[in-house]
Specification:
The structure is a single chain. Helices cover 45% and strands 16% of the residues. Strands 1, 2, 3, 4, 5, 6 and 7 form a seven-stranded mixed β-sheet that branches. The relative contact order is 0.13. The chain is of the alpha+beta class and 441 residues long. The two termini are 26 Å apart. The protein folds into three domains: 115 residues, Butyryl-Coa Dehydrogenase, subunit A, domain 1; 116 residues, Butyryl-CoA Dehydrogenase, subunit A, domain 2 (Beta Barrel), CATH 2.40.110.10; 174 residues, Butyryl-CoA Dehydrogenase, subunit A, domain 3 (Up-down Bundle), CATH 1.20.140.10.
């Protein structure tokens, strides 16, 4: 693997950071989370019109740029540095790949250009706080979270030549502000129990969206109530394997981008702490000059750098995996992940920069490393935020200071996608590290 980024990738990082420095300071973040949507819609429009960020990883035929998970992760790292409240994660990282994997050609042509152009946002609605299981990060996605034929979750039934949804979904990321909802619902009862994905266009008759109080206000969550809501089945088939496979297949990319976001936040928290300990004086000298403080910050730095390496590798590995995007009803054929100006073919050596043929990367094996990278990044963010609060002293515990925002981001992401020990335990089980209670050698 070549750890260097291309000039284009560095340009994406630089451009996103410049926009955020001008438009998204601490006061702007606090103001954005208090809006009805929970984010700055003007900033999102700027990202769409000037940078094409919503369509960064979507194919060019749908109005996107055609980049890969690596570019998404780099943009996510910059968004994480500023703790930007935005529909980037729910729309671009979670829902868009599901539409590519499951949607018919007509559904893709209708929905994806709207997402790529920033004219609409989207959210994935799955029952309860089980998003980590749904994406295959903290457990095997067997579909039982969708109701399993019993009361609870969302139920789907045929009616008037279409589908109708009933039920309630909690903890939906950015659900209250999304114009498109991808809802996981159970159908078939006991005889033919299966989980399918449906598209619901908001607002819709019978659909109620209520924003919930959340620990991390920069990740707004909602409760959806569906009462006889008209829905459109994603794809043409009704086999549960397609939906579950698409959800689990999205997990690594989501984890890689989340890990990059956490690394960006952890790096920024460390920078703020270092700047503070250089200024605050105790016993006539800056507290940063004390050896104990230096050791603590050095430990945080090592954690952050290790987590950054893991996040970058996870993004690279995801970008080099064969794509599962296909036309429903056809045979799955491994696709290619395309970055403008490059060609990436799974199973072959990739030249990252046409101007420098010596810069090549080997093929990544069929491993899933996103969960491990996410665990390391969330842990690094939690430690960096906690040390920042401690070393800021009394001011670190105040609402006016920003230190608590980083700690809430770490805790909130663990509640939504983790926790860390489950991410690692599932990765260990998948790798079969422990068999019969002993370490596999």
């Amino acid at each position: 693997m070549d750890a260097r980024f291309t000039a284009e990738q560095e340009e994406i990082r630089r451009t996103v950071r410049e926009v955020l420095l001008k438009r998204c300071g601490p006061e702007e973040v606090r103001a954005a989370v208090r809006t009805d949507g929970g984010y700055d819609s003007g900033l999102w429009t700027t990202f769409a019109d000037q940078l094409g960020l919503p369509g960064l990883a979507l194919p060019e035929e749908y109005g996107g740029i055609g980049c890969s998970a690596t570019e998404l992760a780099l943009a996510g790292e910059e968004l994480g540095r500023a703790l930007v409240p935005s529909p980037f994660l729910a729309t671009c990282v979670v829902v868009a790949p599901l539409l590519l994997a499951l949607g018919t050609q007509e559904q893709r042509a209708d929905l994806l250009p709207r997402l790529a152009g920033g004219r609409a946002t989207a959210a994935l609605a799955v029952p309860g706080p089980c998003l980590g299981d749904v994406l295959g990060l903290t457990g095997d996605n067997g579909g039982d979270w969708a109701g399993g034929g019993r009361a609870g979750g969302v139920q789907a039934r045929r009616a008037d030549g279409g589908w109708r949804l009933y039920g309630q979904v909690e903890q939906v990321l950015d659900g209250h502000s999304a114009e498109l909802l991808v809802v996981a619902a159970h159908t078939g009862g006991y005889a033919r129990s299966r989980t399918l994905l449906f598209a619901v266009r908001a607002p819709a008759e019978g659909l109620t969206c209520v924003r919930q109080t959340s620990l991390d206000e920069t990740r707004p969550r909602s409760r959806l109530e569906l009462r006889n809501v008209a829905a459109e089945l994603l794809g043409t088939g009704e086999e549960t394997g397609d939906a579950l496979e698409a959800l689990a297949g999205t997990g690594d990319a989501v984890a890689a981008v989340l890990a990059a976001e956490a690394v960006g936040a952890a790096g920024r928290a460390l920078e703020r702490t270092v700047a503070y300990v250089r200024q605050r004086e105790q016993f006539g000298r800056p507290i940063g000059s004390f050896q104990a403080v230096k050791h603590r910050l050095a430990d945080v730095y090592v954690r952050v750098q290790a987590a950054r390496s893991a996040a970058y590798y996870a993004a690279w590995a995801t970008a080099h995996k064969p794509s599962t995007t296909r036309t429903p009803g056809t045979t799955r054929t491994p696709g290619t992940t395309h970055t403008p100006g490059t060609t990436r073919t799974p199973g072959t050596t990739h030249t990252a920069d046409p101007a420098d043929p010596a810069r090549t990367s080997p093929t990544v094996p069929g491993e899933r490393v996103g969960g491990l990278a996410l665990a390391q990044a969330l842990e690094a963010l939690r430690v960096a935020a906690a040390e920042g609060i401690q070393l800021h002293g009394g001011i670190g515990f105040t609402w006016e200071d920003d230190a608590h925002l980083y700690f809430k981001r770490a805790a909130g992401d663990e509640l939504l996608f983790g926790p860390v020990h489950r991410l690692r335990a599932h990765a260990a089980d998948a790798a079969r590290l422990f068999e019969d209670g002993e370490v596999a050698v």
